[in-house]
Specification:
Number of strands: 23
CATH architecture of one domain: 3-Layer(aba) Sandwich
CATH superfamily of one domain: DD-peptidase/beta-lactamase superfamily
Radius of gyration: 27 Å
Helix content: 25-40%
CATH class of one domain: Alpha Beta
Structural class: alpha+beta
Shape: globular
Protein name: CubicO group peptidase, beta-lactamase class C family
CATH topology of one domain: Beta-lactamase
Pfam family, one: Beta-lactamase
Strand content: 15-25%
Largest sheet: 8 strands, antiparallel
Strand order of the largest sheet: 2-1-14-13-12-11-10-9
Organism: Rhodanobacter glycinis
InterPro entries: AmpC-like, Beta-lactam-related, Beta-lactam/transpept-like
């Protein structure tokens, strides 16, 4: 029996109405009931001249009184945040970064460093576009919330109502999968399951391919029983939105999210690089240098992964997006109802609290909403998400009770930098007396990473040598995985070459290390490399091939372990 069957299908509206899902209410913006009025007294005839003269002198003084504290506050914020930003850039040699901070609903700091492309001389600005990666998820869920407000969709609707061809591996899960279940990372898919249909880019997988391929990915655990991060179901959610809204996801995102909120620079779908301008490119770190990865061409194509992680925005628009959640205007509250806002940022699936988070943040609870994470930090409620793509890292942090938060966007490999910068900025709000700065958190994280690497160290593969075709003659040929599709393992210029038909960057030569074979990707930004294990034909069944990450701590989106190749024929 499935866990969800025992527990029953939760109704989101009921949970909200009965206060079973509780998040701190947003602090309201207090407004004066009426304008300040002066009390009228009798005055002689010349009093009007006196009053006008007083007003003429007082108004500039009043303005000066407002401007000077504002300038002082701005200088104070610069003195606070500039050293933090500079320390992180120096410690991690970042190619470029844009940081913005919000306090009490207002942007109080913007800082940018570095270049859009290392060595280009093109400086990062608040208008520079970055890939926001999984921060796209909250925009997708906001789009769905808009459709719910419009009566075109309901969170408890079965996914098959909108996508009749949708199938999970288990028919029972298919039948019971609601729209809400697509968003909480509790479907039963293994972590990153099927992500090789999304990355590395470019590839030829369509959203229809993903909907079809899901039925072949075996679950890692039972439905609604455990948090395991996935991306494919957010792509499915984008297709649900398209079906309910009657137009493609990209069109809906522009019409229902970008335009109403004035996110003029955010891009999704196909667009012209030079017409838009000021675009940051991703980088990887090679020794002491930041190397650009796959620079964009003149036309940026629409990508399959957009609902899960394919939107680009600049810092200005991301700050506007954050303020929409922290201090929404009356118009923004009309754009998305208070009820849907509560649903999106309510805890729907518990996430285990890590030892590091308990020690650093004194957190007791962590959960996932719809496109948002949430946790208590030093007694403060926080709502946030991160974004991670090869060479692009981001974070958006909200402290709803304080109407404060921050956003930063980085165009380099910056996992540690993101953790450290996010922690130091967060402590400014939750523990302002905390003396630990960038150096302390960076050193602590480096020690923890070293310990983790020691426990699960990737083997040294520098001694691996190319495999001769004759040595693998019995194994070369055509192979097929049910969801990744066709793969060729064939002789090529005296070596054995591995190539996935629909993902051209998943290609490389076979190497031998001891008694094991691995594929070393031709494009070295595709990481990690993969072990290959061959299983001979038996009992009338063809030979098969399985894969695993050489680096066990490698990116979970390289989900080689979910592949099961079957030999289907000889090499062409």
């Amino acid at each position: 029996m499935h866990n969800a069957e025992r527990l029953g299908t939760p109704d989101i509206n009921h949970l909200l109405e009965t206060n079973m899902l509780v998040i701190p209410a947003k602090a309201g913006i207090q407004r004066l009931r009426r304008p300040i009025e002066t009390t009228r007294h009798w005055a002689p005839a010349f009093a009007g001249v006196t009053v006008r003269l007083f007003r003429a002198l007082a108004f500039p003084c009043l303005l000066l009184g407002l401007v000077l504290p504002a300038q002082a506050a701005q200088q104070d914020r610069t003195a606070t945040y500039d050293p933090i930003l500079d320390a992180v850039v120096a410690r991690y040699h970042l190619p470029g970064i844009a940081l913005g901070v919000i306090e009490h609903g207002q942007v109080v700091y913007i800082g940018t460093r570095g270049e859009t492309i290392a060595g280009s001389g093109h400086k990062i600005t608040p208008r520079t576009l970055f890939k926001i990666a999984s921060n796209s998820k909250a925009m997708t869920t906001a789009l769905l919330g808009r459709l719910v407000d419009q009566g075109k969709l309901h969170w408890n609707d079965p996914v098959t109502k909108y996508l009749p061809d949708f199938r999970m591996h288990d028919p029972w899960v298919t039948k019971n999968m609601r729209v809400a279940d697509l968003l909480t990372h509790s479907s039963g898919l293994p972590e990153g399951g099927g992500d090789l249909m999304l990355w590395p880019q470019p590839n030829a997988f369509t959203r229809a391919d993903i909907i079809h391929g899901l039925r072949y990915i075996k679950p890692g655990y039972s439905f609604r029983s455990k948090y395991q991060y996935d991306n494919l179901l957010y792509v499915v959610a984008g297709e649900v939105a398209a079906a309910a809204g009657g137009t493609p996801y990209e069109t809906l995102m522009h019409r229902e999210v970008f335009q109403p909120l004035g996110l003029d620079r955010c891009q999704v779908g196909r667009w012209n690089r030079d017409a838009v301008g000021d675009v940051a490119e991703p980088h990887y770190r090679d020794g002491t240098r930041n190397i650009p990865m796959r620079e964009d061409g003149p036309v940026i194509p629409a990508i399959t992964s957009a609902p899960a992680g394919g939107i680009r925005c600049d810092l200005d628009d991301m700050l506007s997006w954050a303020r929409n959640w922290l201090a929404p205007t009356p118009a923004q509250l009309q754009w998305l109802s208070a009820k849907q806002r509560r649903i999106l940022q309510a805890p729907h699936m518990l996430i285990p609290v890590s030892t590091q988070r308990r020690e650093w943040d004194h957190s007791h609870i962590m959960a996932y909403g719809f496109g948002w994470r949430m946790a208590d930090v030093d007694g403060h409620w926080t709502v946030w998400h991160t974004g991670t793509l090869a060479g692009m890292y981001s974070e958006l942090m909200l402290l709803p009770d304080r109407q404060s938060g921050f956003v930063f966007l980085i165009n380099g490999e910056a996992e540690s930098a993101r953790t450290v910068l996010g922690e130091v900025l967060l402590k400014h709000f939750t523990a302002p007396g905390d003396a630990r700065g960038v150096a302390w958190y960076a050193d602590a994280l480096a020690r923890a990473d070293k310990q983790a690497t020691t426990r699960a160290a990737a083997p040294d593969t520098s001694a691996a040598r190319p495999v001769a075709p004759v040595a693998l003659a019995a194994w070369t040929g055509r192979y097929r995985d049910p969801w990744l599709g066709e793969m060729l393992l064939c002789p090529n210029h005296g070596r054995v070459h591995f190539a996935v038909a629909k993902s051209p960057r998943l290609n490389g030569d076979l190497m031998q290390l001891g008694n094991r074979d691995l594929v070393r990707w031709t494009d070295r930004s595709v990481a990690p490399d993969a072990w290959l294990d061959f299983h001979p034909a038996q009992d009338g069944h063809p030979a098969t091939l399985s894969m695993a990450k050489v680096d066990p701590l490698g990116d979970f989106s390289s989900d080689y372990e979910d592949l099961h190749f079957t030999r289907t024929g000889d090499c062409p």
